[in-house]
């Protein structure tokens, strides 16, 4: 098993060295050819996918839905690949440069990370998406997806690798780990000799497992216990529109709002209005003591653990706060450092909130749902980083790269 | 024990929130007052240091030397603190900003990491240095140093904390972990709830232990198996000067050169010259087969493991290569991705080397010894990152920070 992983790792490292020198125009041609191949070979992929779907005993419907491919979905995936071809290539950019007192010319140049490991669940779209984002950013990728999607993933990899081969590029730029045991996953997370970065994509549980067991540097993505604070100066209609959007437009994702903090001064006026709007959208409300007093039996009492839960569902918890200080302090204590918003018409309050709240994305008068690589204009997204090292917030192609210093001298010694 | 660490962690987190809002001018005043206090209270610090030095049974001389403070050394440390006061503050800088199609104004603003954990050996200078660099970059710091320096570290922390208190700042901006058991160190590395980043500073062994056991994100620093490749077009006198400087100016540090690769075409001419220069500097040579053939009994044969060892000593291993491709491939296989140099007069070769060698710093015609925060002009250094995430190469104040996105809207929803 260790032997298998070492072989895969070494192959990836060698392939990455070649890929790092491939010009952007070639990479874009390859991406378009990959998109075409995925469409042309749809029947083969669907056949492999059917094999994976042959036994779905005990799997949830949501799980099966994510695992299932159709011709339409594949066309959408192929279109995504073409969009990556259109993104600008961050590699080779000189981030900064200067000449030292000793006359050395230093440039900090953007280069690939090298080998990226992706650990994810049974979602074939993540296979394609991760492979092409890593490819465009000059990285070899090792994909370790959920075992339920293994046949589909292997077939997709075969197709992408054949395209790489047709362009005389090393096929090992894209590799799928075909053995899906728990033990192998553990070893994969400790393959420091060959893997430069590990990105887990999926549920909070998957991510926590990777963080707990990996020795390879990890980019933590995902969990979002996001808050909206409605200030006493807020435009209440704007507050209602934003809360409803942030909670209900897509409740299952990490940038959906989970908690509503309301200034005590406007609570008696605002709470009945927002409660009605939430009820119309079938959102369950859990309230702190004061909220329950105002809203009565429209709400059930929130438990202490409610303030830390990411519901990912049609549920919201509401807390009344005395003012901005309490709101900031509650958020900094309970948030997952993802996305936080204030609704206000007060300039000072907007400043204090954006300065003091500790999160990847801090909003004034907008929905937390905008925390997204596409909405940010990055054109793609490999995930939303909730850690502070390397990348914070939506990660696009640039966040899949690193830099190196190139130093040109004329014989300098110390 | 867990209770102690949770308490320290929580205190650091609260202190960090206050520190994040402190203006640069105040921080600089505090730093100058810290420098003064360290000098004024030299007798107290030396007394604590003597207590640590009371029993040095079994410790190496080098170890004792690093642990020992004198009035002169303390004056030097205080001067270092004043220099940090003079550095420009990276916080608050807007790294980039744009307006999205939906009219959101996004700015990416530089902010502190939050709480930084430092794990290091019995070197009291690292206590001061880490504390003030973290302070200037807006981070609370938790210092876990070697147990042999505990009394000194506690005394230094008391003094720095009193200065913080005198400026009405939270003393918990600087905390020393006073219990130095192995078990506590292990728990410290897994304190994800409170520590944002862990930086090990010290030996390769210390760093590897932290990488293997930490779940908190780690910035890996240190190990340097650095190479110089002497191209067939090199100015041989320049090559000799650079090799002697890179090997002997300070052999114990990570940016010292450990390996010399020589193009076969110039080996018969160059090797006797460099061997003589190395002999004059008391450097032991270990050679591959061809090197041994040319230099005879001036060298001992290199063993396979020699190509991966960081000697940190007056030892160098020499290998003859057929050309640039072999040099690049040998370096990428054996280096620690720290600093690599080519000596050449050929433009194409300089380009190929800087493009293909995978390392934090790649040099043309200069000594690898320049990989250093001060030499780079950063004015300070918390270490040299050899990993690819977050920071690569010398890390100054900017590398002790992260960013957050501030998004200003007018009621936008998706």
Automatic annotation (TrEMBL), chains A, B:
Keyword terms: Amino-acid biosynthesis, Cytoplasm, NADP, Oxidoreductase, Proline biosynthesis
Function: Catalyzes the NADPH-dependent reduction of L-glutamate 5-phosphate into L-glutamate 5-semialdehyde and phosphate. The product spontaneously undergoes cyclization to form 1-pyrroline-5-carboxylate.
GO biological processes: L-proline biosynthetic process
Record-given protein name: Gamma-glutamyl phosphate reductase
PROSITE patterns in the cross-refs: PROA (PS01223)
Family: Belongs to the gamma-glutamyl phosphate reductase family.
UniProt main location, coarse: cytoplasm
